[in-house]
């Protein structure tokens, strides 16, 4: 069994850290933090809302969900 390279381990740590940061922001409705993490030209498909092709559209959709 080969050991992971340092680069692979660093990548895993970065992904794990960013994943935790994102879901903390999502689960606490921190729209400012989420906004920082989304690209302006994202493409996201939601099973309820359909295709989103802009950061602003996704953020507005999430705000509506939070207000339930």
Task: Describe the protein in words.
With 68 residues, this protein is mainly α. Helices cover 60% and strands 9% of the residues. It is built from three helices and two strands; from the N terminus they run H-H-E-E-H. The chain has helices at 6-27, 31-37, 55-66, and strands spanning 44-46, 50-52. Strands 1-2 form a two-stranded antiparallel ribbon. Strand 1 (44-46) and strand 2 (50-52) form a beta hairpin. The chain is elongated.
What's the gist of this structure?
This protein has a two-stranded antiparallel sheet with strand order 1-2. The chain has helices at residues 6-27, 31-37, 55-66, and strands at 44-46, 50-52.
How many DSSP-defined strands?
2
Average predicted confidence as pLDDT? 88
Oligomer: single chain
The fraction of residues in strands falls at 5-15%
Q: Structural class, from secondary structure content?
A: mainly alpha
**Poorly predicted residue ranges:** none
* Sheet having the most strands: 2 strands, antiparallel
How far is the N terminus from the C terminus? 50 Å
Q: Estimate the helix proportion, in percent.
A: 55-70%
Number of helices, counting only DSSP H or I runs of 4 residues or more: 3
The string of secondary-structure elements, in order, is HHEEH
Physical arrangement of strands within the biggest beta sheet: 1-2
Shape: elongated
**Global Rg:** 15 Å
List keywords for this structure.
3 helices; single chain; two-stranded antiparallel sheet; 68 residues; elongated; mainly alpha
């Amino acid at each position: 069994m080969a050991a992971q390279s340092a680069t692979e381990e660093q990548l895993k740590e970065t992904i794990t850290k960013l994943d935790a940061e994102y879901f903390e922001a999502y689960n606490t409705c921190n729209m400012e933090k989420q906004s920082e993490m989304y690209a302006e030209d994202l493409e996201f498909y939601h099973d309820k809302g359909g295709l989103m092709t802009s950061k602003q559209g996704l953020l507005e959709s999430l705000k509506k969900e939070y207000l339930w």
